[in-house]
Write the structure tokens for this entry.
Amino acid sequence: MKRIFLTVLDAVGCGELPDAASYGDVGSNTWGHVMDVAHPALPHFLELGLGHIPSIHASPAENAIGGYGKCTEVSKGKDTTTGHWEIAGLRLETAFPTFPDGFPAEFIHHFEEAIGHHVIGNKAASGTVILDELGEISRKNATPIVYTSADSVFQIACHEDVFAREELYRFCQIARDMLQGDLGVGRVIARPYTGSEGHFVRTAGRRDFSLPPTGRTLLDVIKDSGMQSLGVGKIEDIFDHQGLTGSNHAAGNTACLKAWMDYMDEEFDGICFTNLVDTDMLWGHRRDPVGFGKALEEIDAAIPMIKEKMSDNDLLIFTADHGCDPTFTGTDHTREYIPLLCWHKGMNGPVDLGVRQTYADIAATCCEWLGLKERFHAESFAMALKASCQA
């Protein structure tokens, strides 16, 4: 039995990329700045080698036993879909379109006709701020809120007392079908909310409607080999269900950690690909480094149980998909390196995996670990991890 447990710590970047100036992100460093401000206790991440990554701003652990490094994003953009796709071996030559001034009036008109409702908003805004501004108007007048951000997203917010989740999902599917070509945003996102004026909160009914991957990914390769390709959290949405043999659409880190460990109790060959979203959704965009640090502590506390459940031929990989520095300006993602922390039973000491030239090195490594030939024009570091057993 050979299994890979690949987990994305959503938005937990580790320092600005060389082209950060093109994105207005010079000075961003999500994990490093959270360490500076919140000082989270992360002993198990440190044991995996976290402190050996200089930009993390943490002292290296003397007992570190994992593989550590960071990966460079080749694809254009700094959004969830782009990051996850490159991790899975699929690079994008052109960034998904963004609409900082809102979507074209003609499109909004056609969308309103298609769903049978007038919409309000149509601007770039924080998800919590837009509810403070328009949540009550939307609830009283049964008018969905449409908004975007610096990312390539078309978001629709509806109060659950007014529109059932299935109706909101229907609106999103209509938008997804319409948003193609030059309007082809990476994701259409359902944002159901509840509560009363001044106390609106988003619920766990979020769903992402992504464009299907434009080429083969790690998930396709593993599935086509006859192995299991399992997703936890919003992985199924990010890949439009493509390449998966099973999925648990758990919501929130606590539920996703449980779903992940439930899969660990099963015997299979293949991959379990998990997204832990709270660092992005609850704390990064809301610019709360203390909450961000506590979310990292929750994940850190689960690592001993995760390691205990691993078999001799399993590989554990923690990484991220982009940054969302809660100490930075604005409320959007930041263009950063992503951390790389790996472990398998038998590792005898820290292994420096260096600065990888593409996120796709992770996909190449997963394939080599599972005995598959595909490398996605990237470089595997599987042999470096295996060599540590003889060190």
Q: What stands out?
A: Residues 8 and 320 are 5 Å apart (CA to CA). The domain at 119-206 is CATH 3.30.70.1250 (Alpha-Beta Plaits). DSSP finds 13 helices and 14 strands in the chain.
